[in-house]
Amino acid sequence: MAAGRDEQRGGVWERVRAHALGLPGVVEEFPWGESAVKAGSRVFAFLGAPAAGAAPAMVVTLPSDDVRAHALSLPGAEPAGYGLARTGWVRVPLGGTAAAPADELLRDWGEESFRAIAPRRAVAELDARRA
């Protein structure tokens, strides 16, 4: 893969990660050496590691059937592994193809996952920031 494409893919990962880390009360941990973004004590996004050799992706929970169906309709998207798909988790690629979702949509999905997982006070703080 060309260096420019590697930088672009890593750039998407960095932008999605930065957005997630900017949400209220969020921390990042590295179980298994990969990024897990938490709201309180619960993970709302798995971001892997962009240099791990695999195409960068995020795993988020999308409680809305319509939003989850849209995410799963994209090339490379799939139900999350390890039994997470049963509760609405999906794995979405972060670039690398012409059909990859736009950064804004990826950030929206990350925020939807945050809203589903985060403590109410964190969601209220996010809403207050947006008001």
From TrEMBL:
Keywords: DNA-binding. InterPro entries: YjbR-like_sf, YjbR/MT2646/Rv2570-like. GO terms for molecular function: DNA binding. It holds the Pfam family YjbR. SUPFAM superfamilies: YjbR-like. The keyword DNA-binding applies. This is MmcQ/YjbR family DNA-binding protein.
